[in-house]
Write a structure and sequence with these properties.
Helix content: 40-55%
Structural class: alpha/beta
Strand order of the largest sheet: 3-2-1-4-5-6-7
Distance between the termini: 12 Å
Number of domains: 2
CATH superfamily of the largest domain: Glycogen Phosphorylase B
Bound molecules: uridine-5'-diphosphate
Order of helices and strands: EHEHEHEHEHEHEHEHHEHHEHEHEHEHH
Shape: globular
CATH class of the largest domain: Alpha Beta
CATH topology of the largest domain: Rossmann fold
Number of helices: 16
Length: about 375
């Protein structure tokens, strides 16, 4: 088979790390990087540390509004994919502008579209990610879902054909990265003046939390509420958030709060090391909620919806939106005793390849 994979940002590099290797063991993969994230901290370090193949095509399509960026993706991906010649499928991950752009191109060129992490829903159409997922799922020829809940979400939208539950590709990556993170954590944390279980970790970058002064002020207040000198809060700052903090004059308020430690975004190995040692994770990221669960670290989600509802159902994740008092209450709660395996067995990448093989053979 000949597969064109299109990735563009941080969470997609992580997911591709589970699939590229088993795919390339038997087939040809042409890897296209749209450049939605293109700097070292959000892109190159992931390729290095997760041992991803070098992209065959690297575009520079970052920046601009969602619509302008998606329009540029479509305009550049169409001739690129046409130029590749005969391909069996276009493979996309998750819910970004890259996912949407590549989906529209595959659909227009009548190339089967394969969506990894299909069926996730927050049911909040204000989120660009939600709109991207819905459109991509409805254009896909093969919907590869991570959970039974995702299958059910698709069924409610009438999508029942060619849905395959492969498990979660991020479980594969966690199984590769977390053992090494645990091994290096004692020394690495000590070198950064942190103790295992003696700090909290936060990430925040969703447009809905950082793109307006009111919401960003509430984000800052919520983060400050769970930081203290005794239990500092380590916050690797996404460039989008860093820019808005300066723009809305909130940078000093966050930076000067007791116990808040702002750092640049870190690579996947350092992030996993921070995660496995954290007392609690606070995040508005989809991927980080799940990684926290897989690591056995309690998560407090700075949103009022989540796609990863199972983590909430089993008591390891709590949605507090941007409410400082609710966040403080959430970090005071005891941890649940049980942590069932919700996200597959770490062999999702292999199943993705097999499902694509079956689809191509059937066509
Ligand atoms: N991540 C990282 N360094 C950081 C913050 C996050 O390596 O400083 C990783 C994290 O482990 C996860 C992914 O980036 O695998 C999540 O990306 P992000 O939160 O940007 O996207 P989302 O999952 O919300 O789509």
């Amino acid at each position: 088979m000949r597969i064109v994979t299109v990735v563009g940002n941080r969470p997609q590099f992580v997911k591709a790390a589970a699939v590229s290797r088993p795919l390339r063991a038997r087939h040809e993969e042409i890897l296209v990087h749209t450049g939605q994230h293109h700097d070292d901290a959000l892109s190159a370090v992931f390729f290095r540390e997760l041992d991803l193949p070098r992209p065959d095509h690297e575009l520079r399509l970052g920046g601009g509004t969602n619509l302008a960026q998606t329009a540029r993706m479509i305009a550049e991906l169409e001739p690129l994919v046409r130029g590749v010649g005969a391909v069996d499928a276009v493979l996309v991950y998750g819910d970004t502008n890259t996912t949407l752009g590549a989906s529209l191109v595959a659909a227009d060129l009548q190339i089967p579209l394969v969506h990894v992490e299909a069926g996730m829903r927050s049911y909040d159409r204000r989120m660009p990610e939600e709109r991207n997922r819905v459109v991509c799922d409805h254009l896909s020829s093969l919907l590869l879902v991570p959970t039974a809940a995702a299958t059910e979400n698709l069924r409610r939208e009438g999508l029942t054909e060619r849905v395959v539950d492969v498990g979660d590709v991020m479980t594969d990556v966690t199984a590769m990265v977390h053992p090494r993170a645990r091994e290096r954590a004692p020394e690495w944390l000590a070198a950064h003046d942190l103790r295992p279980g003696g700090y909290r970790l936060a990430t925040v970058h969703r447009a809905g939390n950082v793109d307006t002064p009111d919401r960003l002020a509430a984000t800052v207040d919520t983060l400050v509420a769970v930081a203290s000198e005794d239990l500092p809060l380590v916050l690797p700052l996404h460039p989008r958030t860093a820019a808005r903090l300066v723009e809305f004059d909130l940078d000093a308020r966050l930076r000067s709060a007791p116990g808040v430690r702002l750092v640049d975004p870190v690579g996947p190995m350092d992030f996993a090391t921070l995660l496995v040692g954290a007392e609690t994770v606070l995040t508005d990221s989809g991927g980080v909620q799940k990684e926290a669960y897989l690591a056995g670290v309690r998560c407090v989600t700075l949103r009022d919806t989540t796609e990863w509802t199972e983590t909430v159902d089993v008591g390891w994740n709590q949605l507090v939106d941007l409410d400082p008092a609710a966040a403080r209450a959430a970090v005071a709660r005891p941890r649940p005793a049980d942590r069932p395996a919700l996200y597959g067995d770490g062999r999702a990448g292999q199943r993705v390849v097999e499902a694509i093989e079956r689809m191509v053979a059937a066509d």
